[in-house]
Design a protein that fits this description.
With 133 residues, this protein is an alpha/beta fold. It is built from 3 helices and 6 strands, in the order αβαβββββα. It has one domain: Aldolase class I (TIM Barrel, Alpha-Beta Barrel).
């Protein structure tokens, strides 16, 4: 990934692929994340490569909501703003599977997702993913 992004350093501001804020919000196999130490360390090498080539990089943080599948959640039901189901098929480690109905987040859970965004942003700052140098 460091090679991929550093090859694009001359293009201007690079906005990364959508990067998960927590395991709860991942919706496809091998999606990137920014919630644990190993992910922070991996992103540091990527941002360093971009900065070394004179580029700027910023992370796009996300939570996939109803587009998450229970196979990524240890069998737990996906969550969303409301009880809805996405059309089509989810890409999972076991191949394509129908999406499942997500349950609405409780008020307490909404604040937890906000906290996950906040922590992922702090983690991004540790990697210089929110920095313009």
């Amino acid at each position: 990934m460091a090679d991929y992004y550093s090859q694009r350093a001359g293009a201007g501001l690079i906005i990364t692929e959508a990067t998960g804020i927590s395991p709860q919000g991942l919706g496809f196999p091998y999606a990137s994340g920014l919630w644990n130490v190993s992910q922070i360390e991996a992103w540091k090498s990527i941002t360093a490569a971009v900065h070394d080539d004179g580029g700027r990089i910023m992370v796009q943080l996300w939570h996939m909501g109803r587009l998450t599948h229970s196979s990524f959640l240890g069998g737990r039901q996906p969550v969303s703003a409301s009880a809805t189901m996405a059309p089509g098929l989810a890409h999972t480690h076991q191949g394509k599977q129908p999406y499942e109905e997500a349950r609405a987040l409780s008020l307490e859970e909404i604040s937890c997702v906000i906290d996950d965004y906040r922590q992922a942003a702090r983690n991004a700052m540790k990697t210089n993913l929110l920095c313009s140098h």
